[in-house]
Request: fold
Amino acid sequence: MREFVFTIEYEEGVDEVMDLFIENPELRARTMAVHATSESIWRLAHVTGPKEVLATFEDLLGRITNCNETIGMCGSPVVEWDYEILSSTPNSRIVYTCQQEGDGVHSIPHVAAKHIGDGLLMQAERRGNQYQWRLLIDDEDTVGAIYDEVDAGLCDGLSITVERLSDPECWTDTGFHDDDLPPEQQAALEAAVEYGYYETPRRNSLQSIADTIDVPTSTLQYRITRAEAWLATEFVSNSLSARPDDHPDAEDVQLEA
Reply:
């Protein structure tokens, strides 16, 4: 299997959803699952960011009028759009979306599925002005066809860059999986990082962060303590389970990106 990675870059003002990512670099959306047919695409996305930015993002989902998941349709009316917030914490959302394909211009998942066929596996991430797509393929001959169709379908203000065609990297990560970390503890860690609790010198105290995210200081302290204990346990567990020749020097052990 091979991994085909490419990035779509957006100019400001082209798409209202991407504009929010451009204006708020800390906002991030990672695809958890995506399914495409000749008629529609469905996806689950994990969206993280500051509380007020996520509120704006959620509000924007409810009033989308232009396609933002398809190529070549910037400014075109949405054919049919549906979404639901499946999970919500102060600093994250799990979002389900479903969107019909438009006449003549299709989503990137649709283009990929057309050329790859059954068994399509994709990942995607939005951050800043970039929307990066990762495809797992077993036939390199499809890469050129996918690239050509996506490139030809891009509207003004969008550009495509091929990052790599290589052995799989993003699909073989054996690092931490935050699914086992309770959402409240994950949100507490995200807030601590966002507001500089771990910076040197420390930018904000736990009390000031607790006031900002509107939780009791003792609750925030407990959640961070539990999250830090989980991180430490996971780190040690992953380190000890590695083959000896993976880390010949204990001091060289690093968390995987």
The two ends are 22 Å apart (CA to CA).
